[in-house]
């Protein structure tokens, strides 16, 4: 039953090559050996895409979730290091700072003032806090832009009547 479940879960061309294995452990071991090797090319590609990512014309939210996807993928590609000393907390703080810098570096140039304000905060906000502050700034701009457009303002007023 487990063999059938595993073979039905993988792509047809992969399962075909494993149809005659006699136990689930053999099937699982074969898949592990085939696909658990982390390619240096994949690490390079992920890091390259991460460092090249910029907001462009995307919303802050779309940009942030795309960035977070690269962070999650990078974390999955890195081998887990078990540490019994207190260095893990220091390492996590360093990763958080790096992520804040990456997030701020990729923001559209219109966020220069907000970026500067975040970098002057002591202590630095978390990545999620920085995201929320920038997202609020974006929402305020959208509201301001709508209210400054005469046609849009008239439509808002007409809706209230």
List the quaternary state of the chains: single chain
| Number of domain modules | 2
The helix/strand order is: HHHHHHHHH
Mean pLDDT level: 84
Distance between the amino and carboxyl termini: 66 Å
Query: Total number of helical segments?
Result: 9
Uncertain ranges? none
Q: What share of the residues lie within helices?
A: over 70%
What structural class is derived from the secondary structure elements? mainly alpha
Report the strand count. Answer: 0
Rg over CA atoms: 24 Å
Q: What percentage of the residues does DSSP assign to strands (E)?
A: under 5%
Global geometry: elongated
Could you describe the largest sheet, including whether it forms a barrel? none
Question: What do these coordinates show?
Answer:
With 161 residues, the chain is mainly alpha-helical. The protein has 2 domains: 34 residues, no CATH class; 113 residues, no CATH class. The protein is built from 9 helices and no strands. The longest helix has 21 residues. The protein is elongated.
Which helices and strands, and how do they pair?
Layout: H1 2-9, H2 12-16, H3 24-35, H4 40-52, H5 60-77, H6 87-106, H7 112-120, H8 127-147, H9 150-160
Helix pairs in contact: 4-5
Brief rundown of the structure:
The protein folds into 2 domains: 2-35, no CATH class; 40-152, no CATH class.
What attributes does this structure have?
161 residues, mainly alpha, 2 domains, 9 helices
